[in-house]
Amino acid sequence: MAVTRSSSTCDGFFIISLLIIVSLLFGTSSAQLNATFYSGTCPNASAIVRSTIQQALQSDPRIGASLIRLHFHDCFVNGCDGSLLLDDTGSIQSEKNAPPNANSTRGFNVVDNIKTALENACPGIVSCSDVLALASEASVSLAGGPSWSVLLGRRDGLNANLTGANSSLPSPFEGLNNITSKFVAVGLNTTDVVALSGAHTFGRGKCVTFNNRLFNFSGTGNPDPTLNSTLLSSLQQICPQNSSGSGITNLDLTTPDAFDNSYFTNLQSNNGLLQSDQELFSNSGSATVAVVNSFASNQTLFFEAFVQSMINMGNISPLTGSSGEIRQDCKVVNGQSSATEAADIQLQSDGLVSVADM
After folding, report:
1. Rounded Cα gap, residues 345 and 336, in angstroms
2. Residues taking part in catalysis
3. Crossing angle, helix 275-282 and helix 287-297, to 10 degrees?
4. pLDDT by residue (tens digit) across 112-167?
5. Do 296 and 261 contact (CB within 8 A), yes or no?
6. How far is the C-alpha of 147 from the C-alpha of 150, rounded, in Å?
């Protein structure tokens, strides 16, 4: 008797084959990002971003480091969806108010300036989440670091995640194991931890982010033993015990405004500013030590790894296709007003003058 295949079996075969084909064609959402996404709709997007940052650098040499930090803090919460940029509204609790961001993240005004310039050139085209990705590349390049083709096509989220910002962002006071776990949770690895930490090769740090190392480290009554004694004395003068913690110093004491591999040679001399920085080298037996040594001895190797890690980070759960939106104003979801704007409107309707107008 001839064996015949039932129609249900054939149908099952067909469905499975179709699912495999669809998976191969579309893959994950990050696979939809590409470097030429705006080539036909906003071909000068990258140049506009770069020009705006160049202008900002004239009065604020640390703005590049601040912008790349915004991209980092955005991607680690809800993925790279621009959620960090949203202000408070009646329905949104801004991530800006989370302790890792409050009185810490900066550069939002430059993001707004970039977005305004892009809206003037090509309205409704470039997302705020892509602005952060483009601004990061331009900031690194303008500081003497590597350039790369930024993968684009992200769309902007419709909500913020204050709880996620409180729990998911690495802290300068955390141990290496905790920090690594937070990287792994978003699909990154140990090399990414070290390479992305290398962004601390430029920018500044407030006393509040490292004064735990200066006088009573981990309740010992003594400074952090992994902090270079000469640097310790200098930092104790900048950040006296029981001070407000608002003092500022360079993250990289060697070349504070240049993007290079000095950050890693600093770690080898116990000159890392933050606890989370120095632990990459001083945590004996950690896999990060060998990576630090390789980057310290070979800047090209660091640059290559940094570019790949930035691409990896930029691929964390992006919104693509029809998900999310392209915000007109990075601070608010389209059709909404921020809490500040709403208060101003109410004041005007009551015949009062906004403090912002005084």
Report:
1. 13
2. 73
3. 100
4. 999 999 999 999 999 999 999 999 999 999 999 999 999 999 999 999 999 999 99
5. yes
6. 9
